[in-house]
Amino acid sequence: MHLRRARLLAAASATTLATLAVAGPAAADDRGKPDPHHGFSIQAAVDAAKPGDTIRIPPGTYHESVTITKDGIRLLADRVVIAPAGADPTACDTFDDPESDRVSGICILGEVDPETFAPIDPVTGVTVRGVTVTGASGDGLVSLGTEHLRVADSRFTDNDGYGAAAFVTRGVAFHGNKATGNGEAGFYIGDSEKAHANVRGNHSADNMMGFFFRNASVGEARGNVADGNCLGMLLLAGAPGPVTDWKLRDNKVTGNNKVCADDLPISGAGIVLLGAQEFHVRGNAVLDNNSEAVSVVEGGIVVQSSFPAPPEEPQVPVFEPSGEVERNKAKGNQPADLVWDGTGDVDFDRNQCLASLPEGLCG
Q: CA 38, 42, 45: angle at the middle one, nearest 5?
């Protein structure tokens, strides 16, 4: 499996949706370019650090990319901007494509089997706090093969790929970050059998998707805001594996009516669960997701089976949804506040809404 398969959301056909998602890590030994204002290089500081060291970045704008492969590095910043345009690709950008010219801002990279995508020696305990990454031709921040990664109080703006993304991860935490204007999802977690993810208090706006969890299980997304994206929150199974045991609680998912139409059109979708299982969707405000544009998936809270596998992966099963949708406030969404295709075992209970497909799911 290759990271590149994860890039784009293509939805209504079996072939295109199953290839959904993002790009990833690489293998370049890039070195930071010192900022002309104060001569400090983030990459040089990382290279010189020992595992467990804290690096405090002086305020300023850094025109470099950064790769972290050591355990316990804490990258702490205040009024720091990483603008990697023109810098070298990171090891995450070239992981499955040595010729890649994509440049991500920050790469956290452990050892992963390039054929099976299985973790071999994860990098553990890395913290990134207080940075802004903008204008990357790749992702703002991308990690591959990590344990207990924490990304907090950071900003990811106007990057061509994801705002912040974690592949093959366990114990990842995204807390209090903001992602705006990114070409793919503001926040992404994928290819993680037991992610044990904690996604809390983030704001994702004007991206392709607000939050995207694909082929990843065990996590909680709580107290986040997704507004003005093409799609607010997506849980996607069958691309290629399951998505199980997610808790989506107390999130605000509103007005995700931006139009994305480079591949298949997406617009006007709030919380979408495609083949997700053992989920608990509770206490969310899902409002005014009601674009007039053509879209392959639309509505407030949408629950349905995953799409059939593409011909090249016939072994991938169709996943039927299972879980609970309860005590949510869903109003002003089109074609309905709650949408269910009738498959699987899903309990709709005490939701405040005005219209559902089929009828009878509100209340």
A: 100
Q: Which two tokens stand for residue 145?
A: 């093969």
HSE of 172, CA atoms in CB hemisphere, 13 A: 34
Alpha helices in 60-211 (DSSP H): none
- In degrees and rounded to multiples of 5, residue 181 shows phi and psi of 70, 25
Per residue in 312-347, is it b (16+ CB within 10 Å) or e — as a string? eeeebeebbbbbbbeebebbbbbebbbbbeebbebe
Burial class (CB in 10 A: 0-12, 13-18, 19+), 50: exposed
The structure tokens 């070409």 sit at: 183
Could you tell me the mean pLDDT of each successive run of 10 residues in the chain, 363 residues long? 33 30 32 55 97 97 97 97 95 89 96 86 98 98 98 98 98 98 98 97 98 98 98 95 97 97 88 98 98 94 91 85 98 98 97 97 95
DSSP string spanning 307-341?
PPPPTT-TTPPPPPPEEEEES-EEES-SS-SEEE-
CA dist., res. 140 & res. 161, Å (int): 7
CA atoms of 349 and 266, how far apart (whole Å): 28
Q: What are phi and psi of 4, to 5 degrees?
A: -60, -25
What number of other Cβ atoms are within 10 A of residue 106's Cβ? 29
Please give the single-letter amino acid code of residue 12. A
CA pair distance 115, 127, nearest whole angstrom = 28
Residues 289/270, Cβ–Cβ less than 8 Å: yes
Place of tokens 């069958």: 238
Integer Cα distance of 323 and 274 in angstroms: 12
User: What phi, psi does 82 have (nearest 5°)?
Assistant: -105, 115
Rounded Cα distance between 325 and 281, Å, is: 5
- Residue 110: CB atoms within 10 A of its CB come to 23
